[in-house]
Structure formats: C-alpha cells, structure tokens
Write a structure and sequence with these properties.
It contains twelve helices and eight strands. With 332 residues, it is of the alpha/beta class. The protein folds into two domains: 155 residues, Rossmann fold (3-Layer(aba) Sandwich), CATH 3.40.50.1400; 153 residues, 3-Layer(aba) Sandwich (Rossmann fold), CATH 3.40.50. Strand 3, helix 5 and strand 4 form a beta-alpha-beta unit. The protein is globular, with a radius of gyration of 20 Å. The relative contact order is 0.15.
Length: 332
C-alpha cells in the first residue's frame, strides 16, 4: 500500500526559549542552509546567533503563536487531513527540522502497512536550503530504516497548471476590490545558492536576462522559478505589468537576491502606489515569515512610509483547488 509524506520546513516545539534555541541550532547547522566552513559555522551558530538571536526570535513567534501551537504545523496538519480524505490513503506530515520528525512519520506509515511512500516537499520552488536538504534527509532516513521501501520524491511544482490555478484562486479570494499593486514576496536566498545549483556552472546570474533565456539550469534555479510562478499568476489574474512585482524577504546579509521586500515597500508610496496587496508564494502554509514578517512588520513599514492600505494575502493553506491539485500530483 502507498502512503504519502508531506514535509514542511519546521518550527520550535513550543515557546520555551530552549525550544527556540533547539530549532535555530538544528536549522542553521544544516550545511545546505548555512554553507560555510564547518568550524566557522559552529562558532557562528553556537556562540553568536543562538545566544543573541533566540530571544528576539521567541518574541516573533509569540506574536503569531496560537492556542493550538505553531501556525506552520497546524496549517500543514490541515492540509494532510484534507488530502487524506481526498485520496483515501495514509497521509503523514513531517518537518525537516524538529517535530514531527521525518523518521517518526515514516515509521507511522510503515506501521500502517505502507511499503511504498510518496514524499512531497511542500516547497513549490527548488532551492538547496529547502528541496535538496529535505530530499537528502528523506533518503538518509529511509536507508537507515529499510532500503526495500519503494520511495518517490515529488519534484518542484512552481509552474504546474493546478498549482497556478489554486494559487491564483487563493489570491483572488483575498484581493480587495480596489488596489494599486500586487507584490509577490518570496523568501530570499543567497545568490551563491542559485549559482551552486546551476548544472551548467555558467548560466545563472551571469546576466540580467538569464531567467528568460532557455537553459537546463531552470530546473534548479530558484530565481527563474519564482519569476515564472509570478508571471503565470499575474496572467491568470488579468494583471498588466504595472500592477504587480516580485521581491525577496528574510535576507540575513549581503549578496542575497534582490530587490528586497522591505526596501520595495519603502519606495512604493513615493511612486504613488498607496494601496497594495502582498502574497508569499514560496510558502504553502502560513508561518512566521508570512504572519509576523509580512503581515505585521512589512505592513508597518509600508504604512509608516506613506502607504494607505495594506492587504495581507494568506498562503494557499488548505484551499480546495490546491488539495485537488495535490491529489492528482501525487497520483501522477
């Protein structure tokens, strides 16, 4: 029997400072996330980032935590439950970091009689810090448990018709009647990550128009894929080129993909764009980066800089069309 494993990134188990530290330590110790020499990484994570950033991160989580727990885990669970009803197969959710762990979720599928597992990383766009590290972790866990398990890992789905239709539907359901601009805000990544994933070693970011020039690099290019998703959604929504744009949030330092979301939000009111809507398609389920970074902090930035109306568009979460697409995607 086939079972389905839905994987998202992860969250602290609770709001205890120790839990936040555990999450940050595990996440940032991943060589595909913080890809610097291991000794430097250990010093940076254990003696600088975790000791000095954890309290601020805890405060951010406190602003969006619910009575049931982490929004990311809750929303992912809702997707899993709705999908299971749709496909009538065992479905488990897991997090790349912390709990529920990939190992425990796979063991639950095996206990339910599954000898075949379809794993679906819930990242529409390919990146080494999400798609690749998750794929490698799943394969490592399976190898440790039972190499006879038939495993398939779904690819990125950034341009699949069903995904674009469901994302557009979700956006449309939350767009106000009047707005000047729709901003697609994606999680940022370092430019070096884009170049590392380029199988040609010569295409990505070598010129301003690289994402529009056909290349086998596009299969692994985060920037190309988020631009494609945005263009397809804008077309589905009937928006012209002046009515939408793309930006990148959550940067940690220099050398990350641009333009930066916070800088774009500072500039838009100066251009006469006073009523905006913001959507974050890099995420399937609402989480810290959408609910706190965008709906709270980005909103404040835009309004303080002269904006008048800021509409936060939730993630696709358990949208019915998305669940329909997911069911068909798994079957295919």
């Amino acid at each position: 029997m086939k079972g389905v494993l839905l994987i998202n990134l992860g969250s602290p188990k609770n709001l205890d400072l120790s839990s936040v530290k555990d999450y940050l330590r595990e996440f940032l110790s991943d060589d595909y996330v913080l890809d610097i020499p291991k000794l430097i990484q250990k010093i940076l994570v254990n003696f600088i980032i975790v000791p000095f950033r954890s309290s601020k991160t805890k405060e951010a989580y406190e602003s969006i935590w619910t009575s049931k727990g982490s929004p990311l885990i809750i929303n992912t669970e809702l997707i899993g439950k709705k999908l299971q009803k749709k496909i009538n197969l065992p479905v488990e959710i897991a997090m790349r970091y912390q709990e529920p762990s990939i190992k425990d979720s796979i063991l639950r599928l095996l206990k339910n009689g599954c000898d075949e597992i379809t794993a679906v990383p819930l990242y529409p766009h390919y990146a080494q810090a999400t798609s690749l590290t998750t794929k490698l972790k799943i394969e490592s866990v399976i190898n440790d448990i039972d190499t006879d398990i038939k495993l398939s890992i779904s690819p990125s789905f950034y341009c699949e018709d069903g995904y674009i239709n469901s994302l557009s539907d979700s956006i449309k359901n939350h767009l106000p009647n009047e707005f000047d601009y729709l901003l697609f805000s994606y999680h940022g990544i370092p430019e070096r990550h884009v170049k590392k994933m380029d199988p040609t070693s010569s295409h990505c970011l070598n010129n301003k128009d690289c994402c529009n020039v056909s290349s086998k690099a596009h299969k692994y290019c985060y920037r190309h894929q988020v631009l494609t998703t945005s263009e397809l959604c804008a077309k589905e929504l009937g928006l012209n080129k002046e009515q939408w744009g793309v930006s990148f949030q959550s940067r940690i330092g220099p050398g990350w993909l641009q333009p930066f979301t916070d800088k774009v939000l500072e500039e838009l009111p100066k251009q006469g764009i006073k009523k905006i809507a913001v959507v974050c398609p890099a995420f399937i389920a609402d989480n810290l980066e959408t609910l706190e970074e965008v709906d709270i902090r980005a909103r404040e930035t835009f309004l303080e800089c002269g904006g008048e109306e800021f509409t936060f568009i939730p993630c696709i979460n358990d949208n019915d069309l998305w669940i329909d697409f997911l069911a068909n995607f798994i079957e295919e």
